[in-house]
Design brief:
The complex is a heterodimer of chains A (111) and B (123).
Chain A: E1 9-12, E2 18-23, E3 35-40, E4 47-50, E5 64-69, E6 72-77, E7 86-94, E8 97-102, E9 106-110
Parallel strand pairs in A: 1-9
Antiparallel strand pairs in A: 2-6, 3-4, 3-7, 5-6, 7-8, 7-9
Chain B: E1 3-7, E2 10-12, E3 18-25, E4 34-39, E5 45-51, E6 58-60, E7 68-73, E8 78-83, E9 92-99, E10 110-113, E11 117-121
Parallel strand pairs in B: 2-11
Antiparallel strand pairs in B: 1-3, 3-8, 4-5, 4-9, 5-6, 7-8, 9-10, 9-11
Classes of the chains: A mainly beta (111), B mainly beta (123).
Amino acid sequence: QSALTQPASVSGSPGQSITISCTGTSSDVGGYNYVSWYQQHPGKAPKLMIYEVSNRPSGVSNRFSGSKSGNTASLTISGLQAEDEADYYCSSYTSSSTLGVFGGGTKLTVL
Amino acid sequence: EVQLLESGGGLVQPGGSLRLSCAASGFTFSSYAMSWVRQAPGKGLEWVSAISGSGGSTYYADSVKGRFTISRDNSKNTLYLQMNSLRAEDTAVYYCAKVILLRAAAGTGVDYWGQGTLVTVSS
């Protein structure tokens, strides 16, 4: 199955807001409300930040929010902080595989 | 507290075999599907395999189908990945992960990840 499309990199200054997009098709992102977002710092395991499009797990800052429009999901981080600098991956349920599909990842740089 | 602890990684020659284990604690293991996700050096995440809570249903990425076998022992709260006919392109950190939703498919998302175990396939 094809990976979801994410920008390779985004950047922002401390305090600013950024949005990372995740584009799929009607067979994955657009067809199901099972989009998740993961944060990964270098050398560390991924961490769940958003699930089911817009739900935040307990303990995740409310500066992180998720949304979806059509075949594109988005992760928005407000009030950027230095510790937000990491790689971010989206994932979606897909009709073509029970395993799901990941995006290629986006490197967030906090300037 | 949910904990997932992988083991079994290492250096193996092309064509060789390796078995990964993932010891789980802090949740009702048999009620949740589990997944293996891998990450090649400097690359993104890739779903490898998943198994239902009962172990009765298994799923594989095309890249590993016929070579890898996922299984679980609910009496030991342990997930396994038997990897045979290993190739250089299987070199990666392998993570086990717990599916978020009770009795849901792996593609619906995972919430807890192990620390990962490195598998290196090289002569």
